[in-house]
Amino acid sequence: MKRIKNLAILLIAFTLLSGCEAKIENAKTETFNVCGNCGMCKKAIEEAVNINQVAKGKWNKNSKMILLTYDSIKTNSDAILKRVADAGYDNDKYRASDENYAKRPKCCHYKRKTK
Questions:
Q1: What is the arrangement of strands in the sheet containing 55-60, beginning at the earlier edge strand?
Q2: In the Cβ-directed half-sphere of 48, how many Cα atoms lie within 13 Å?
Q3: How many Å apart are CA 43 and CA 58, to the nearest integer?
Q4: 54: phi then psi, degrees, rounded to nearest 5
């Protein structure tokens, strides 16, 4: 009986928490290439993109692609990709400054295209 009760509590908690993710209004979704190497890159890239209820992104380290979803009234892909470049990562629209790229940990240094 105690096991069923614990399972029921766990199921209720999971149901409540899964509905807490904020929805993005006026959502537009696009994909872009973002250079990077590792899990630390993934974390930094996604942190540069994610703004509560405005923008979110998932970067895949194997394909080097990011799936952006953003509120097209409040922001645009240019502004988001500029933040990614400011975090030190080259992408389809912006090249990170040499200074911001150098600030990344050594494991995050990828082979850059020439200017």
A1: 27-33, 65-71, 55-60
A2: 26
A3: 10
A4: -120, -45
Of 84, 93, 98, the closest CA to residue 41 belongs to 84
Per-residue pLDDT of the chain (115 residues; tens, 9 = 90+): 656 655 555 455 555 444 445 689 999 999 999 999 999 999 999 999 999 999 999 999 999 999 999 999 999 999 999 999 999 999 999 999 999 999 999 999 999 987 6
Where do the domains of the chain lie, and which CATH numbers do they carry?
A: 23-108 (3.30.70.100)
Residue 93 exposed, middle or buried by CB count within 10 Å (0-12, 13-18, 19+) = middle
Query: How far is C-alpha 74 from the geometric centre of its chain's CA atoms?
Result: 17
Residue type at position 45: I
pTM of the model: 0.79
Residue 105, both tokens:
């940990």
